[in-house]
Amino acid sequence: DAKTTQPTSMDCAEGRAANLPCNHSTISGNEYVYWYRQIHSQGPQYIIHGLKNNETNEMASLIITEDRKSSTLILPHATLRDTAVYYCIVRGNAGNMLTFGGGTRLMVKP
Amino acid sequence: NAGVTQTPKFQVLKTGQSMTLQCAQDMNHEYMSWYRQDPGMGLRLIHYSVGAGITDQGEVPNGYNVSRSTTEDFPLRLLSAAPSQTSVYFCASRPGGSGNNEQFFGPGTRLTVL
């Protein structure tokens, strides 16, 4: 699986957009980009995934660069409940489970 | 649906004791897995299963055994607990096949080994 690099921590003001970057320069053609988050000791929660097109769902948007070497998760209007550790994971769809790195600790402040 | 359930929520063991962490899912998912999470760290894969009767090792399998006799259940056995196994254990499941790799996680079991 391709390795990912994320900032250790970020702050965001409540109500503003939170933009979380992820670098995955060694991603291969059949690997997807997944985002999960973990809110204070709970089990991780799936947010969104994509291959090469931008994706949007009710939780977030995922922007993947054209060369697929990096991506950005966007929470359009961050709330205090979005404070969590966000994991960017690159994985093919078949076989083994996900490999989690250190993630980005997002702190949403009033 | 209850989703993924784990028991117990908390457990304290003495070094050398054995125990089984239970995991069950009611979504008819083929794939199930066990992760451990040490303080301030990301999750690491212990063992996984792609269907009943099939298991394989993950990143950190030593000291743990698994079996998958039914689709619903995937217990994790600690053979002889050690302080290094103090951690939070998460079970997860997902549908089989290629396509969406969204995994559903349980609430975790917090294990302390003295």
Describe the structure.
The complex is a heterodimer of chains A (110) and B (114). The mean pLDDT of chain A is 91. Chain A has strands at residues 9-13, 18-23, 32-38, 45-50, 55-56, 61-64, 70-75, 84-91, 104-109. Chain A is 0% helix and 45% strand. Chain A is globular. Chain A has 110 residues and is mostly beta strands. With 114 residues, chain B is mostly beta strands. Helix content of chain B is 0%, strand content 49%. Chain B is built from no helices and eleven strands. The termini of chain B are far apart. The A-B interface holds A 32, 34, 36, 41-46, 49, 87, 91, 93-103 and B 4, 31, 33, 35, 41-45, 48, 50, 56, 58-59, 88, 90, 92, 97-108.
Biggest sheet, spatial arrangement of strands of chain A:
1-9-8-3-4
Helix content of chain A: under 10%
Summed over residues and divided by their number, the pLDDT of chain B gives a mean of: 93
Biggest beta sheet summary of chain B: 7 strands, mixed
H/E order of the elements of chain A?
A: EEEEEEEEE
Assess the beta-strand content of chain A as a share of residues.
over 45%
List keywords for this structure.
heterodimer, A: 110 residues, mainly beta, five-stranded mixed sheet, B: 114 residues, seven-stranded mixed sheet, four-stranded antiparallel sheet, 11 strands, 0% helix
